[in-house]
């Protein structure tokens, strides 16, 4: 359940009272883990996987209610516009949300600095500790003093609110799972401040582009367009940038999913200027050296390896040698028909999912299955058309995998309109927002019974 998908009168969710309430619901339902998408500033088309910063938090996650309690805003500032209050779409309205929140954040920042709260020991400690902050301010605000003050204030308050959210989650027995995209965009604070760590042309554009070759999601492959890493430079610096990135994630989360883990062993390179990812080559990456450097700093690595796709024995060895859990998508088992993919054969050191943000929801998936695949699922689960999502939840929870994760859309039995992302498409994604009240007491009781029955409580 991503932050933006939490119901909000402003257009998208935040990390304030709504997130605290959702954590309470998870606890009541028997869940002990809440997994999110990347929480960095969103990139093109609201994508959390194309962030302009590996360290900052998305500014619109800033909850306004705590700013009222601090006296930086008034209660009247929280009243949504007439247009927003009449909004009928269940999808996020990112434009309206950003306009509303940023205008209030600007007002609160003025009050914050006017009260000289930027001289407090807490604020100074945050600035001193956040070595990435200056680069982020250069990127997002330039030399404008007012904008730099605004965005410094936003990141300070977001850090405070995140700490409060994580503390609340811990108090109710819920651990947070984050997500770190393996690559960063060319137009980012990371690249601007560390050009030598990326393979760039003279004009700053990527020398080669990231992506994956043609697969089940796209006949042309996926062209992500990020620059590849200049790994020799990272090696010279003992992978300091990567270690700082993971340290930041571990500070916010109990577990961290490494997106496209395969790229730490070998990564797909597409020529600059290509329109598709059809013509690329695989190049080795020093993942073993990188993970070893991390292990020296952090000890046992609290990482989940997103090892989906072109999995090879070498990638499996890299994952297993560092004790990382891989991922198993239950939908895929009934598509492939391979015995090793069946849920009862999941390894203990893995995380079982009905699907991820990149897949169809389970109800959408069911409608697109052929007769053989449906028959296989029904024989395995005993499900009928109307209970497919419930049967899928039972299968995932009964998996031997150490962790079992269900998207909120599958708990609610939602279809195509609730799909979060369609890989290979640049627009129209990330928009699903849960309706207020959908996370009901009845659903919590149902899920708690299932979690108890499968021995996961």
What does this structure look like?
This protein has 457 residues and is α/β, with parallel strands linked by helices. The chain has one domain (3-55, 165-453): Alpha-Beta Barrel (TIM Barrel). Helices cover 40% and strands 11% of the residues. The protein contains 18 helices and eleven strands. It has helices at residues 17-28, 65-69, 82-85, 94-114, 121-129, 133-141, 145-171, 189-193, 231-236, 240-252, 287-298, 313-321, 330-336, 362-367, 371-381, 388-398, 408-411, 441-453, and strands at residues 33-35, 175-180, 208-212, 222-227, 255-258, 266-271, 281-284, 303-305, 326-329, 350-353, 403-405. The strands form three sheets. It has a four-stranded parallel β-sheet with strand order 1-2-5-8, with helices on one face. α4 packs across α7 and α10 (240-252) crosses α11. The longest helix is centred in the middle third of the chain and has 27 residues, at 145-171. The protein is globular, with a radius of gyration of 22 Å. The two termini are 20 Å apart. The model has no long low-confidence stretch (mean pLDDT 95).
What is this entry, summarized?
The chain is an alpha/beta fold. It has helices spanning 17-28, 65-69, 82-85, 94-114, 121-129, 133-141, 145-171, 189-193, 231-236, 240-252, 287-298, 313-321, 330-336, 362-367, 371-381, 388-398, 408-411, 441-453, and strands at residues 33-35, 175-180, 208-212, 222-227, 255-258, 266-271, 281-284, 303-305, 326-329, 350-353, 403-405.
What is the topology?
Layout: H1 17-28, E1 33-35, H2 65-69, H3 82-85, H4 94-114, H5 121-129, H6 133-141, H7 145-171, E2 175-180, H8 189-193, E3 208-212, E4 222-227, H9 231-236, H10 240-252, E5 255-258, E6 266-271, E7 281-284, H11 287-298, E8 303-305, H12 313-321, E9 326-329, H13 330-336, E10 350-353, H14 362-367, H15 371-381, H16 388-398, E11 403-405, H17 408-411, H18 441-453
């Amino acid at each position: 359940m991503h932050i933006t998908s939490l119901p909000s009168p402003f257009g998208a969710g935040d990390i304030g009272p709504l997130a605290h309430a959702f954590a309470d619901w998870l606890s009541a339902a028997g869940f002990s883990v809440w997994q999110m998408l990347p929480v960095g500033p969103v990139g093109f088309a609201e994508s959390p996987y194309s962030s302009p910063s590996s360290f900052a938090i998305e500014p619109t996650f800033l909850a306004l209610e705590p700013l009222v309690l601090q006296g930086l805003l008034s209660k009247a500032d929280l009243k949504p516009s007439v247009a927003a209050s009449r909004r009928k779409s269940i999808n996020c309205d990112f434009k309206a949300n950003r306009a509303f929140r940023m205008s209030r954040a600007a007002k609160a920042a003025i009050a914050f600095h006017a009260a000289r709260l930027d001289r407090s020991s807490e604020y100074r400690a945050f600035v001193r500790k956040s070595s990435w902050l200056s680069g982020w301010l250069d990127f997002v605000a330039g030399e404008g003093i007012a904008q730099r003050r605004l965005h410094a204030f936003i990141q300070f308050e977001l850090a405070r609110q995140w700490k409060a959210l994580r503390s609340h989650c811990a108090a109710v027995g819920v651990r947070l799972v984050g997500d770190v995209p393996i690559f960063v965009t060319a137009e980012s604070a990371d690249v601007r401040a560390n050009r030598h760590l990326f393979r760039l042309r003279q004009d700053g554009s990527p020398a080669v582009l990231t992506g994956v070759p043609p697969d089940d999601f796209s006949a042309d492959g996926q062209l992500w367009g990020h620059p590849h890493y200049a790994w020799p430079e990272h090696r010279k610096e003992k992978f300091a940038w990567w270690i700082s990135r993971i340290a930041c994630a571990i500070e916010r989360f109990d577990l961290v999913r490494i997106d496209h883990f395969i790229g730490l062993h070998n990564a797909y390179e597409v020529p600059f200027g290509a329109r598709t990812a059809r013509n690329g080559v695989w190049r080795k990456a020093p993942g073993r050296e990188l993970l070893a450097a991390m292990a020296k700093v952090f000890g046992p690595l609290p990482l989940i390896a997103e090892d989906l796709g072109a999995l090879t024995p070498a990638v499996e060895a890299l994952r297993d040698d560092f004790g990382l859990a891989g991922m198993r998508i239950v939908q895929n088992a009934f598509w492939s028909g391979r015995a090793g993919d069946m849920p009862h054969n999941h390894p203990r050191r893995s995380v079982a999912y009905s699907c991820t943000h990149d897949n169809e929801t389970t109800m959408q998936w069911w409608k697109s299955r052929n007769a053989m695949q449906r028959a296989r699922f029904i024989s395995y689960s005993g499900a009928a058309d109307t209970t497919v999502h419930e049967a899928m939840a039972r299968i995932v929870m009964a998996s031997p995998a150490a962790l079992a994760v269900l998207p909120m859309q599958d708990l609610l039995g939602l279809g195509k309109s609730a799909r979060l992302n369609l890989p290979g498409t640049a627009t129209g994604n990330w928009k699903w927002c849960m309706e207020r009240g959908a996370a009901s007491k009845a659903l919590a009781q149902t899920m708690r019974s299932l979690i108890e029955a499968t021995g996961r409580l």
